[in-house]
Amino acid sequence: ATKCTQEQGQAVFLQFFDYSALTVDEVLHSFFSIFTAPGECCSIDRILSALGNAYAEMVPPGNLLHNQGDAVYVLCYSIMMLNTDTVSPLVLHKMKEDDFVRANSGIYNGGDFDEAFLRALYRRIVSNPMTLHRDGPSARPKPKRQCILL
Q: Are 56 and 66 in contact (CB under 8 A)?
């Protein structure tokens, strides 16, 4: 039997999903509506890295995120941070649109994403934040299928 690393296993697993027609924020919404978000930062990092690479390979040529796995990974992490900022009552000073655009400068192949792209992304996340489910007691409904990725 051939052994594979956790990262290789995640990469193979993500090939069973087709996110090619979705925007990056729709991918995160979809992904975390099915899977339980781990509470550990290192686990989230590995998941976002695998998801970013898989998505960058899935989107068709011509999509600005095609073959830009590192940029998608950083953007996914930034979206997660914005989402947390948006929904957490503990964050007193919420991230502004200009802050989000500035925070994502230089991550696109050493350059910047189109500002209109980032502003539209910010508005979609703030107007429709993700609900991240965690392990443990909660009042959330149980989905028909659920998987915990570490």
A: yes
SS3 content of the chain, % helix, strand, coil (to 5): 50, 5, 45
Q: What pTM was computed for the model?
A: 0.79
d(C-alpha 128, C-alpha 20), whole Å: 21
- Could you state, in chain order, the average pLDDT of each consecutive group of 10 residues for the chain (150 residues)? 64 74 91 74 83 91 92 94 92 95 94 96 95 51 46
Give the C-alpha separation, 114 to 78, whole Å. 16
- In sequence order, which residues have a C-beta less than 8 Å from that of residue 121 and are 6 or more positions away? 23, 24, 25, 75, 79, 100
Catalytic residue among 26, 40, 97, 115: 40
97 has catalytic annotation:
no
Q: Calculate helix-pair angle for 24-34, 69-87, nearest 10 degrees.
A: 70
Cα–Cα distance measured from residue 115 to residue 37, given in angstroms and rounded to the nearest whole number: 29
* H-helix or E-strand spanning residue 79: helix 69-87
